[in-house]
Structure formats: structure tokens, C-alpha cells
Design brief:
Largest sheet: 3 strands, antiparallel
Order of helices and strands: HHHHHHEHHHHHHHEHHEHHEE
CATH topology of the largest domain: Fic-like fold
EC number: 2.7.7.108
Number of domains: 3
Structural class: mainly alpha
Helix content: 40-55%
Catalytic activity: L-threonyl-[protein] + ATP = 3-O-(5'-adenylyl)-L-threonyl-[protein] + diphosphate; L-tyrosyl-[protein] + ATP = O-(5'-adenylyl)-L-tyrosyl-[protein] + diphosphate
Keywords: ATP-binding, Nucleotide-binding, Nucleotidyltransferase, Transferase
Protein name: protein adenylyltransferase
CATH architecture of the largest domain: Orthogonal Bundle
Strand order of the largest sheet: 3-5-4
Strand content: under 5%
Enzyme class: transferase
Number of strands: 5
Radius of gyration: 22 Å
Length: 363
């Protein structure tokens, strides 16, 4: 965004406006972890909400109507996702309810990404790697798809048993850094993992008595993500060890209102990243490498042939719909709808907007 009015609201003496300003500022700032940017329309909608003209429910409804009337044509343009998720994050942060449970974690993901990701609120069922700028293209070792549910339940159960009584603030911050970095490393979700983890963490911190109504998350979301990466990466032969030191610095600023510099270049594993080499979040955000589904295992030869025809007709991230499928492989509407559903269920394609008569792209 070219201008940021939320800081002024965060200085408001009126608590409701101040807290809403913080919620929107944080929600929009968190989109940076995936290199996303919000629209001017969202900005105006957010201000109307802060001023008390509309509720969060009405803000979400306005965004839904706006994008139904102004559908995104470019598959690489994820502004709609950024706008809708920002509004949902702001609403969730503004709610006081929270439970430290796996279901809460899954529920937050579902609420944030419903109608955006086909698997919103679901535990991923495939293994992933991600090329990280901060690791010179290497990847963190994420949780195995077969163990995600058990690992998530174990980590949260251990945190529920943990007592912060008689700990120093340094010990509390270190423990929180270890807990959230381990939760993030499980990577329960294929997409939206960091944003979900951040919302879950903010709400959990409030149950511990921390206010966290400052601009640290909003202005340093990418640093937060990179510090999670460094907390989970080892390359011992090259003298690189997992460390929560960067995450702890972030948390000291967040929880204690300290003012340590938070520069992404300091997290780079080379240790020699220069001032003039500041990364561009648009190009340095992580690339997720997912194994492509083996279509020959799931489909009959004729169906495989039709899928390959569609891949050729709609390469990369090209968006297509039911009518396009009907033309390319010469089938009727009902069969095209069933075909699209089968490909979604087997992870061959993913919905971009809606289902059935919506738009899709190959994964």
C-alpha cells in the first residue's frame, strides 16, 4: 500500500478504534510473508470498519461482492486472496475467544482460506520442500505427511502442560520461540501456514497476558517468517545450526516493546549479505515444490490422455473453466463438471474461484 493510515488509529485514545487499527495493520502486514499486496478498495473498507460504519461481517460481504463483480483475470494476481484473508485475520484478531487445541489451529486456517484454497482447514496429505532465500535456496525439513496430526497434537499437548511460573522473561521468551518455531515447522498446511501460525500465536499470547497491540508483526512479518526458518535449519558441515536467537529478538520487540533492529539480511546463512543487497520480497519469498500427482495411478488411460490435452491447452498457471474443458476434450457439461471434481479430489488441479462452474488451474 502507498499509504498507511493505521498507525494514526493505533495512537487513538478511543480503545475500539485503536484496537481495530492494530488488527487491520497486522492483518495487511502479514500478507508480506507470501509476497502479497492488498488493494485500495480493502484500505477504504478497513477504514469504514474502524470508524464504526460497518461490522467485520459487512466488510467481508463487501469484499465478496466486489470480487464477484470484478473477477480477477490474471492467475498470478493474488490481490483478491490478500484482501479477503486480511479482512478475516482482522476479524479473528479482534475476537477474544481462543483455545489452545489442534482444532483451533485447523479452524483458523479454514476461516482464513475458505473458498480460497480447496483444502482450507485440512491437514496436508503430501510432502513438501521450499526453496528459501535466507538459506541460499535450501529447504527446511518439514513434517512428514503421515505424521502431521500426531505431531501437532503432541506439540500442543506439551505446551498445555508447560508452566511459566517462576520463569524469568528471558526464559519465557526462549520457550515461546521454541514452541512457535516447532509448531510452524510441522507445516500442517500446504499453503497459508505462516499466516495461520501467526494468528494462532497472537491469540495465544493474549491468553498469557501479553497485549501485543504494536506494529511489530505488521512491519516485520517477513523477518518473523525468516526467523522461523533459521530456527529449524541445520547445515552442520558448514557450521550452520538451528537457532531461535532471531526469533527471540523479534519477540522482545513484540512483547517488551524493545527496539532491536530487525533486518532480513542479518538472517541470511552466508553471514555476508551486504547492505546494498536488500532482498525484494516479491522475488525472495519461498517457492514451494510439491510432488505432482501420478495421474497414471489414479486415472484410466483415456482420462490421462484428456488431462494431458488440458495441460497442453492451459500450461503453467493458466486459468480455465468448465466451458473450456468441454471445448478441448469435446464432452458435455455434466461430464465436464464430474471431470473437474475428480481432478480436484486427486490434487491435479485446484479451484481459483468457486466450484463446478468456477475457475481452475493446474497445480
Amino acid at each position: 500500500m502507498d499509504r498507511d493510515p493505521f498507525k494514526e488509529y493505533m495512537k487513538e485514545t478511543e480503545p475500539n478504534k485503536r484496537y481495530k487499527g492494530y488488527a487491520w495493520h497486522t492483518a495487511i502486514g502479514l500478507q508480506a510473508v507470501d509476497g502479497l499486496k492488498t488493494s485500495e478498495y480493502l484500505l477504504h473498507t478497513a477504514i469504514r470498519n474502524i470508524e464504526g460504519e460497518i461490522s467485520f461481517e459487512e466488510a467481508n460481504a463487501l469484499l465478496q461482492n466486489y470480487y464477484e463483480e470484478n473477477p480477477t483475470r490474471d492467475a498470478t494476481n493474488r490481490t483478491e486472496e490478500a484482501d479477503k484473508v486480511s479482512a478475516r485475520i482482522a476479524a479473528l484478531i479482534s475476537e477474544s475467544s481462543f483455545s489452545l487445541t489442534p482444532n483451533e489451529y485447523l479452524s483458523i486456517h479454514r476461516k482464513l482460506f475458505e473458498d480460497i484454497y480447496y483444502n482450507a482447514g485440512c491437514i496436508r496429505d503430501y510432502n513438501i520442500t521450499k526453496k528459501e532465500w535466507v538459506l541460499n535456496g535450501a529447504t527446511v525439513i518439514y513434517g512428514s505427511a503421515t505424521e502431521l496430526k500426531a505431531t501437532l497434537e503432541y506439540d500442543i499437548a506439551e505446551e498445555k502442560k508447560f508452566s511459566y511460573k517462576n520463569l524469568s522473561m528471558e526464559e519465557i521468551i526462549h520457550h515461546l520461540a521454541v514452541f512457535i518455531s516447532r509448531l510452524w515447522q510441522i507445516h500442517v498446511f500446504g499453503e497459508g501456514n505462516t499466516r495461520t501460525t501467526a494468528v494462532f500465536f497472537i491469540k495465544y499470547l493474549r491468553t498469557l497476558g501479553f497485549d501485543v497491540t504494536n506494529d511489530i508483526f505488521a512491519e516485520n512479518a517477513w523477518y518473523f517468517r525468516n526467523s522461523l526458518v533459521r530456527a529449524n535449519y541445520n547445515d552442520i558441515k558448514n557450521g550452520i545450526y538451528e537457532t531461535t536467537e532471531f526469533l527471540e529478538i523479534f519477540l522482545r520487540n513484540l512483547l517488551l516493546n524493545e527496539n532491536h533492529p530487525l533486518h532480513n539480511r542479518t538472517l541470511h546463512i552466508s553471514g555476508t549479505f551486504k547492505e546494498t543487497e536488500k532482498p525484494d520480497i516479491e522475488t525472495a519469498k519461498p517457492d514451494i515444490d510439491e510432488p505432482k500427482p501420478d495421474i497414471e495411478v489414479f486415472f484410466q488411460p483415456k482420462t490421462v490422455s484428456n488431462i494431458l490435452k488440458l495441460r497442453e491447452a492451459f500450461p503453467g498457471q493458466t486459468i480455465f473453466g468448465r466451458s473450456d474443458v468441454m471445448k478441448v476434450i469435446d464432452i458435455k457439461a455434466s461430464r465436464a463438471s464430474d471431470f473437474l471434481k475428480d481432478m480436484v479430489e486427486h490434487g491435479v488441479i485446484e479451484p481459483v474461484t468457486g466450484h463446478g462452474k468456477g475457475k481452475y488451474r493446474f497445480r
